[in-house]
Amino acid sequence: MQNLLVFLTLIFLVSCKPVETKDNELVNILQKQKLTVGTEYGGHSYFLRDLNPAGFEYELIQGFADFLNVELSVKIFSQPEAMLKALESKEIDLVASQFLFAPYQTSKFKKGPTYQYFDLVLVSHNPDHPKVKVPNISGSLWLQKDSYASYILKEKFLKNDLNWQTHTDFDAAELLSLVASKDVDYTITDSLLLNKTKLAIPELKEVDTLADQLERRWLLEPNQDGALMGALLEYFGTLQASGQLAILQDKYFSHIAKIDYVDIREFIKSIETTLPKYRKWFNEYATEVDWTLLAALSYQESHWDPKAVSPTGVRGLMMLTQPTAKEVGVTRRTDAQESIRGGAIYFQRLYNRLPARITKPDRIYFALAAYNLGLGHLEDARVLTQRAGLNPDYWVDVKQFLPLLVKKKYYDQTRYGFARGDVAVLYVENIRRYYESLEYIIAQEELLKITLKETGYEENEL
């Protein structure tokens, strides 16, 4: 009887032990009406454009904050490890980063849905460098500390006699710059970042792929229930279903998928030698868009040659037809200033004639396509897009149907008939590459001016 009482007492004591509960982080976010997210500065993460936040990760996290109907607070970290510690200590609600964390760093955290794929690539500064496997390289190899790249090397190539170092003082973009300047022979980086950087430094070359189709996912603090994860799944599901995720991917990544080394190198050379003659007029006549976009459009048309003439008779820096020149008041198409003014007016008219519901950046892409093949053919492609059940107001959808305008099966269904819609798609993507390359170089110029001013030097002293 005594043993039974002891046994029942033990059961009672065990049953009275408090059950461990997990935090409801979603409730906490909704109560404080604020979502706090950790990220880093970077071309694909977070940066300021005209003092306004921008970047692929920023647009995603701002969208999530809007989805929850709360304010967004972004915390910038210079060291990835500090970002993870802030998440673990609940200083931030989640991590949305383009940093290539090593698996051992993220194993303790919950991971949101996959929203992006990338490759891990070995990069050289030599555009003629042959393909080579990592164990066979000679020279210096610098990596970010605690990155996926350093993890891969430790796991696969620790026994090889590789001269590699890890650094905390340089981010991935800076390491690529060191490779480009030949201060370092190699680095290992994200394929998406490499493509973006090649718009300004075309000499960089991928010479090996260490891992492909790696997944990018947000990180959540582990000691919480599934409410925040459920909200994330619903948010990304909504983005996917609405096409907004595809639009964001297209905005930041589609045009940089293929970089022509020779073409970008010539463009950068022209920025230095030719653009200064015409820059003031691009700046003067640009209205709804940046002057750099107008300049990129002009380069695609004429390579900034005011005397350019096509086989079809279009002329000048903006390659205007005679009817278009007359419409916009240009009497001499080969006069650089007149051509830029006329081209800017014509582009603005195309931009204004698009349906008001089409917003930037799609509105810009459509206006560029119309500059190339006309509003009528663009409208034909939008009709085909709508008939297929896709959105005629999204460039990412319409650009799938523009190339079909060369096929009789499709152009027979349209009002304006045959058109080289395939050329128009390439045309738009080229301008987007030139625009982003020019924006980067102009930003570097402005940074140099600020640095010179702060250090007391004048530009003509160098």
Which key features would you list for this structure?
about 50% helix; D-Maltodextrin-Binding Protein, domain 2; 3 domains; alpha/beta; five-stranded mixed beta sheet; about 15% strand; about 450 residues
Briefly summarize what is shown.
The chain has 20 helices and 12 strands. It is of the alpha/beta class and 462 residues long.
Explain this structure to me?
The chain is of the alpha/beta class and 462 residues long. It folds into 3 domains: 130 residues, D-Maltodextrin-Binding Protein, domain 2 (3-Layer(aba) Sandwich); 100 residues, D-Maltodextrin-Binding Protein, domain 2, CATH 3.40.190; 173 residues, Lysozyme. 48% of the residues lie in helices and 13% in strands. It has 20 helices and 12 strands. The strands form 3 sheets. Strands 4-1-5-12-6 form a 5-stranded mixed β-sheet. A 5-stranded mixed β-sheet has the order 9-8-10-7-11, with helices on both faces. The chain has a two-stranded antiparallel ribbon with strand order 2-3.
